[in-house]
Amino acid sequence: MIITFEELQAFLDEQFPQGAAYGSLQKLGDGWAEMKLEVDEEHLRPGGTVSGPAMMGLADVTLYAALLSKIGLVPLAVTTNLNINFLRKPVAHQPIWARATMLKVGRTMGVGEVFVYSEGAEEPVAHSTMTYSIPPNR
Questions:
Q1: 23-34 pLDDT, tens per residue?
Q2: Where is each Thioesterase domain found (predicted)?
Q3: Which of 31, 37, 66, 82 has its CA 20 to 30 A from that of 131?
């Protein structure tokens, strides 16, 4: 692991403060990260479930954290592809959390997957795969 939890947290607070709207960093390891989103009314969609964009945002920022654990603090690593499958309905007023794992990290590209869970449920509510572009000369 190239960076520590504290270094990544400080980087996100300084360089990506809007990312806090998508969740807070909980754990960080070598090529993996966990984040949690406290669900409130702004994250709900009609019908009383967590919205897709809220789950996608959490998944994306969590994979960004996992990638940075491998490549260091690279602000311009950006999502180039995001695929998500919504598997079951999350509990409306319970936090959701995500665990991201990098599957491959190369010189110019990183690929990973994210499982999103509704707190208190054992089965994931969403599964996402993503590709990130890593800038040259990082």
A1: 999 999 999 999
A2: 47-122
A3: 37
3-state helix, strand, coil in the chain (%, to 5): 30, 40, 35
- CA gap 78, 74 in Å, rounded: 9
Complete DSSP assignment for 40-75: -GGGEETTTEE-HHHHHHHHHHHHHHHHHHHH-S-T
Query: In terms of Cα–Cα distance, which of 106, 99, 101, 110 is closest to 133?
Result: 110
| 0.90 surpassed by pTM | yes
Q: Note the pLDDT tens digit of each residue in 40-56.
A: 888 888 887 899 999 99
3-state class (DSSP) for residue 80: strand
